[in-house]
Amino acid sequence: MRSPYPTITLGIVCHPKDFAFLDLVVAHAIKHSSNPISEVVMVTTSEGVEALTRLFPAAKVVDENLFLNSEVIETLRNVVPNEIYGWVLQQVAKFTIVLTANNDATLILDADTLLLRDQVFLGSDGSQSISYSYEYHMPYAEHFSKYSGFSQDKTGHSYVTHYQLMQKDILKSFLPEFGLINWIKSANYEKFSPLADYHSYGEYIFRNYPHRIHVVRWGNISVKRQKIIKLLVPEKSMELYEKFSKWNSISIHSYL
């Protein structure tokens, strides 16, 4: 049966340490996205391209250093401290996936997050779901305000939710010519975790396109990977669903 919802792209930026459970992450995304996914774009390190291509032969797998243009790479190297260079590069790569995808909208998904319930990310009228979390972090608000010129929000929440649909036309409006470079430069790198791609997009669409969003419950839980590692295999999927039946998604962060 043909889906009534628009087709989207699935975008994942990942490091080789994420490869072990990436097949489950992709399978769960395809299963639970009510929007058909016609392409999967995966960005990884130079060292990980070959292995990731073998794991996902149908996906578009690209080297992060070749995916971003030279001006962006130069800006990252000149502006971003070495200790968070890779983290910021990953966020820039997520935006770049959206801007270069074949579809008008892309579901950006963290490489360690499993979707557990069916979700409509983009309606036929161009409106999208958006969720927020209570992981409020002042530097995210400060960075968005400095870059966009909007007053600083004091909502007590952020849009950092481990997955988020991003629409190309809205992101292009947020990041016009040289916008991505200015977005990088606007962060205060003397502060811990000074910028957030998810928060920037969420705040921008909320303020500029309120008619194109509907807020949905986030419902994500973060769990230590070693606590549920025995359930992270296809044959244990029903046990995984039963254990986390109240949640929309689960993040199995390696750093917890």
Order of helices and strands: EHEHEHHHEEEHEHHHEEHHE
Radius of gyration: 18 Å
Helix and strand composition category: alpha/beta
Sheet of most strands: 5 strands, mixed
Read across the widest sheet, the strand sequence of neighbours is 3-2-1-4-7
Per the CATH scheme, the topology name is: Spore Coat Polysaccharide Biosynthesis Protein SpsA, Chain A
Q: What distance lies between the first and last C-alpha atoms, to the nearest angstrom?
A: 41 Å
* Share of residues in helices: 25-40%
Total helix count?
Answer: 11
**What is the total number of structural domains?**
1
If you had to describe this structure to a student in words, what would you say it looks like?
By secondary structure, the protein is an alpha/beta fold. It has one domain: Spore Coat Polysaccharide Biosynthesis Protein SpsA, Chain A (Alpha-Beta Complex), CATH 3.90.550. Helices cover 38% and strands 17% of the residues. The chain has helices at 22-32, 49-55, 64-67, 70-79, 85-100, 138-148, 168-174, 179-185, 197-208, 225-228, 237-243; strands at 8-13, 37-44, 60-63, 105-109, 113-115, 128-130, 163-167, 213-215, 220-222, 249-251. It has a five-stranded mixed sheet, sandwiched between helices. A three-stranded mixed sheet has the order 5-10-9. Helix 2 (49-55) links the parallel strand 2 (37-44) and strand 3.
Protein traits:
3-stranded mixed sheet, alpha/beta, 5-stranded mixed sheet, 11 helices, globular, 256 residues, Spore Coat Polysaccharide Biosynthesis Protein SpsA, Chain A
